[in-house]
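pls ignore typos typing on phone
adenosine-5'-triphosphate + seq
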Amino acid sequence: MSYLRAIHPKRSGGELAGVQVCCPGKVNLFLSAGSPTSDGYHPLTTVFQAVNVHETVIASVRDHQTSVTMSLESPNPSVPTDESNLAVRAALLFKKRYGITQGVHLHVDKKIPAAGGMAGGSADAAATLRACDALFNSEASLEDLESLARELGADVPFLLTGGVALAEGRGDLITPLTTDMELTWVLAFQREGLSTPAVFREFDRLHDGREELTPAAMPEPLIKALREGDIDLLADSLCNDLEQAAINLHPDMAETLRLARSSGALAAMVSGSGPTVAALVTGPEQARSVQTLLETLPQVAGTMIVHGPVAGAHVEN
Ligand code: ATP
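k done
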């Protein structure tokens, strides 16, 4: 790993060009959380699947500036564009690590709902790392990018590669899982988002006074289901320890889950820390009927049929 090489931004016909990177969101097929450690983090055993709802980040060089700036395709009051945005932090971290002095502008088109439990901010950060790598021809290895990703947040390393993976530690120690199984999901986005730290606080409150929790070991039935393409075993193995905490903070979700479960879907669960509800369906036909039902609920802001696994952050131009 050499940080001392001269790094030059990508040029097209002499002009500084933007690099466009696309990054998927994720659902957690399995999420088991332990009691927080002394540093406040919850140890996790989780299985991520990247699904085809994508963020797009276009990164370009600002030659006569040094700062990182950001714009949103659709401005959203719950998504900051200053240094608290995870994408801006990713570009600043990349610049610092590779000694880059030029400014960077990020233009972000968000399709993953903010604070929805699908790692939208982390997807923007993973996309930004890939975009900066391509923009400045830094030729960082995947390991280099993963080490930056780990500094930004627990979901960011997985989104660099996508697919399906077991994640341990804070969710940042990734073991890819191979599977030929393609899953179809109906996502129901709720009107209000949920803060991940607030969901973990509620999880702690629910377990307060009980014995120390340790996250589950490797979820063997789920891994077997993925390996053998057994959809019924997979549906039975889905699990999310944060579900009750998320429902307590967002009681409307209970109704969305109930309807999804009675709609004929194979299973329904909360995605990550919520409040997005993900219903597993047999294929496109069932997806459309489950989608039509879920759209009747007033608390559902929108729905989307997605599939996974898909590849992680990748350059598109
Ligand atoms: P996770 O599933 O990783 O817990 P999430 O998808 O529930 O995350 P995000 O959309 O990543 O949540 O955003 C959580 C909060 O982080 C937002 O409410 C917002 O204030 C802040 N934030 C910072 N950067 C971003 C970003 N690029 N996109 C969206 N929110 C961001």
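The longest helix spans residues 120-135. The CA atoms of residues 46 and 172 lie 10 Å apart. more later
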